[in-house]
Amino acid sequence: MTGPRRVSRASSKSGRRHGTHGAPVRRTGGSHLIARARRAWDSDLAWSFRQSPVAMLAALLTLLCVGGALFAPWLAPTNPFDSAALNLSDGFTPPAWTEKGQAKYLLGTDDQGRDLLSTILYGARISLAVGVASVLLSMAMGVGLGLVAGYAGGRLDAFIMRVADIQLSFPAILIALLIDGVARIVLPRETHDSIAVYVLIVAIGLSKWVDFARTVRGSTLVERQKEYVQAARVIGRSQASIMFRHVLPNVMGPVLVIATIHLALAIITEATLSFLGVGVPPHQALAGHADPVGNDFMLSGEWWITVFPGAALIVLVLSVNLLGDWLRDALNPRLR
User: Fold this and answer.
1) Which end of the chain is more exposed for a tag (fewer CB within 10 A), N or C?
2) What mean pLDDT comes out for the span 140-162?
């Protein structure tokens, strides 16, 4: 009489993999996505997010702001950029819950009769577009220069870092004002309004690349001494391949944190330049109504023209900033 047959671990795994009849079991696309979603949900980053009520609230507010901006054509009661739809007689209408308010103007109107709620939703699209595009520009420039400076070293590293030190001696808003002013002098006057957004993106992007460059350079100085870089050199990899295919992925962690924080700073810079009258035209920016004229309206009693756009700007910037702070702490290995 023979004893019970032992099933080895390898055969049991093979049976699970090939099924009872030896046919291979293939995972469908849906199950693969579900498995990836479960791994992401169980990751340390997701656990840290679930344990932070501030991060969850900031993410919710950010989603509301971004969603309102993206779906502005469907959510906004009117199109504030359509001059034919404006009614000047509705100018200075107070919010709907006040004594002289109208139900169709929830947050009131400005001096031109534009609905403030619609203006905020449409203006947020431009503010977010300028912020994201300028951060991408500064990140591409800063990461590229920092990677080259840290990996190459020598005179090239010294030159790039001295340029960065010189720029750090000036406030970023002053650099942006200088670039915007030069562009307005060089470019034809009739094109100023049509290219104002692009000039603003370039001005903000060129004023904030230094933080990315210095951070990436410091990380690259550490990574280039590690064994995998030496091994890539031994097998004959080119310098460009080592930098962009091996070193770059390992220095991108801090870059993502800086990009999140700089997004809030870029939106603030855009609002500041619009406040000074050298950025996006005031009727298009998120805080465009919080300009010097808006201050006159506040002092004369039309407080809503300044308060509501300013409050929307505060909510957007604060939520993005809190997300950046959480991401910085969550990715810091010393705090784990």
Assistant:
1) N
2) 93
